[in-house]
Specification:
By secondary structure, this protein is mainly α. The chain has one domain. It is about 70% helix and about 0% strand. The two termini are about 25 Å apart. One of its GO terms (molecular function) is transmembrane transporter activity.
Length: about 150
């Protein structure tokens, strides 16, 4: 049951990232064409930066669920399996603590009046999405710890 709920949350985040990526590709194409014909769109870089944030934070949990985060095992792959498991647990716990600190800091420092410089887009929805993305990543980490999947 817990695994299904986490998978559902991860899938929602994944689709938010997919839509953000599709939207970013379409907008970059439009912005490029408009610049080429001599009619640049004001705030195009700001919009793309916001979409990059959406893509990155919405894809964190999916990346964890597919074991796609970067890991280098040149040294640790030569260790005994039990030591690899211990190091895997330590790594997951450190990542979990990091995610919880990021969530806590962004919730504590949430300002609803801050806007972007050029287009005056409010920043709080994107900060809220950051909190959701890191929370989903936390859930994926907790799921792996309970399912004893310590090594990617």
């Amino acid at each position: 049951m817990f695994d299904k709920i986490i998978k559902y949350i991860t899938d929602i985040n994944k689709w938010i990232a997919y839509v953000g990526l599709l939207l970013m590709v379409a907008l970059v194409f439009c912005f490029s064409v408009s610049r080429t014909i001599g009619v640049p769109i004001i705030g195009d870089i700001e919009i793309v930066q916001f979409l990059m944030a959406v893509i990155i934070f919405a894809s964190l949990a999916f990346t964890e669920s597919t074991n796609s985060h970067i890991s280098i095992g040149i040294l640790t792959e030569k260790f005994p399996q039990s030591l690899q498991n211990i190091l895997g647990i330590i790594g997951k716990l450190i990542t979990l603590v990091f995610c919880l600190v990021v969530i806590w800091v962004f919730i504590q420092k949430m300002e609803y009046s801050t806007t972007s410089l050029l287009l005056k887009i409010p920043l709080y929805p994107f900060k809220f999405l950051l909190v959701i993305g890191f929370a989903a990543w936390c859930l994926e980490l907790i799921k792996k710890l309970f399912n004893k999947k310590f090594i990617d």
